[in-house]
Amino acid sequence: MLPAVSACLLGFRYSRAATVASPCGGHHYVTAPSAKPPQPQAGDVTEKILNQPLEKADFFRVAELFSLKDLFDARVHLGHKKGCRHRLMEPYLYGCRLDHDIINLDQTMEHLQLALNFTAHIAYRGGIILFVSRRRQFGHLVETTAKDCGEYAHTRYWQGGLLTNANIQYGPGVRLPDLIIFLSTLNNVFQQHVGIRDAAKMNIPTVGVVDSNCNPSLVTYPVPGNDDTPAAVELYCRLFKMTINRAKDRRKQMELIHGLSAPTSQIS
Amino acid sequence: MAALCRVVSGLRYRVRLSPRFLRNSFSSDSGPAESPISGFSAAFDHQEVLRRETQSNAAGPKASSLDPELSFAALLRRSPLIQMGPAKDAVVVGRVFRVVRDDLYIDFGGKFHCVCQRPAGADGLQPGSRVRLRLQDMELTARFLGASTDTTLLEAQAVLLGPLDGREHQIRD
């Protein structure tokens, strides 16, 4: 999946001219015929920059950003009541105490590490990340998080064709996000957010915090955890922000090291 | 040095019990004790901290897998939420984090907050003040006719007993 995404991104990074629409793996990218192919030496170095993080399992060391105690203190393990439980969340639950579900933090640690690692790789390659949450209580927090890491957020009403009808609603040649992070996968009437289904339709990977009443099946990297307590959501926002900033800084550092040091460089 | 080690190992059990007792009495964390510690006890605490630091540095990131006290099962078992038992009629300490006219939004450490009416004459309850609550329910849910899952209100229910220690006008945090 990742090499294919990188191949698409290399060619179509800042294309604005709408001449030919060529779908590449579900995304609608546009080729700009006047774009110069990158020079051979720069291309080799760019390949090296892109492939080096793939050699290690935890290249960005995201496992250091959080610990089990941090998750526990932020009340990530608290789930809803037994009657609200979604059948597909049962594998992620540690148990049920006096009718309250407890989420297994050992599993959450692994899933969160995978999700943060994936987010870091996407940010390293210059992908667009979209934060989505329909919880009004945390709307401002999510928007400020996205602003602080230079990415995008959508915490308002989700129009039906936002992803699936983007070329008509927003003009041809729109670049869709490369990753969508759901801080809460439910909308205000406790149904699954439309963005999850639409992202799956458009082949956009998703990272989602799934509580015990959510459906984790369509989310690419589900993170079982509490999405109702402010402490937990602040922890997630902080972790995602730190990961994305860390990955972007690492990219700048790699470009400096390998000599592509122009700050206005547009080659990804 | 050898004498210090022997005294340290002898006092280890006595010192470990007291933080647990404190944690069970107050549901919110109170931090270190208010009375100033001096002399040998200060030195002992400092040595404990240094010893733990060297242990964690030596163990590295696998400290949690080696130390059973930090496993999720152990943390959960000793958490105040589990030790409390059923939530019905449990008295807890909460902290007001938002005030909207007469409604106080109080967070007591559970998954949800609770909303209580400000009692008449208690104008000293501001955001940040600590109150005592009697919990009724940690999450208000009910199964309605024709529904497959419960409907949840995303709130807890509690009865406000009054400010903590009767000191209405003292704002902590």
Which features characterize this protein?
heterodimer; A: 268 residues; alpha/beta; five-stranded parallel beta sheet; 8 helices; 16% strand; B: 173 residues; alpha+beta; five-stranded antiparallel beta sheet; two-stranded antiparallel sheet; flat; Small ribosomal subunit protein uS2m (chain A); Ribosomal_uS2 (chain A); ribosomal protein (chain A); structural constituent of ribosome (chain A)
Describe the structure.
The complex is a heterodimer of chains A (268) and B (173). Chain A is α/β, with parallel strands linked by helices and 268 residues long. Helix content of chain A is 37%, strand content 16%. Chain A has helices spanning 2-11, 40-51, 68-73, 105-124, 139-148, 166-169, 194-201, 230-257, and strands at 20-24, 27-31, 78-81, 93-97, 100-103, 129-132, 152-154, 179-182, 206-210, 221-224. In chain A, strands 7-6-8-9-10 form a five-stranded parallel beta sheet, sandwiched between helices. In chain A, strands 3-5-4 form a three-stranded antiparallel beta sheet. Chain A has a two-stranded antiparallel sheet with strand order 1-2. With 173 residues, chain B is α+β, with helices and mostly antiparallel strands. The longest helix of chain B has 24 residues, at 2-25. Chain B has a five-stranded antiparallel beta sheet with strand order 3-2-1-4-7, with no helix packed on it. In chain B, strands 5-6 form a two-stranded antiparallel sheet. In chain B, a hairpin with a 6-residue loop joins strand 2 (103-107) and strand 3. Helix content of chain B is 35%, strand content 23%. Chain B contains five helices and seven strands; from the N terminus they run H-H-H-H-H-E-E-E-E-E-E-E. Chain A binds chain B through residues 63-64, 67-69, 72, 75, 77-81, 83-86, 94, 97-98, 100, 102, 104-106, 190, 213, 226, 228-229, and chain B through 61, 64, 70-72, 75-76, 79, 81-82, 85-87, 109-112, 138-139, 141, 143, 149-152, 154.
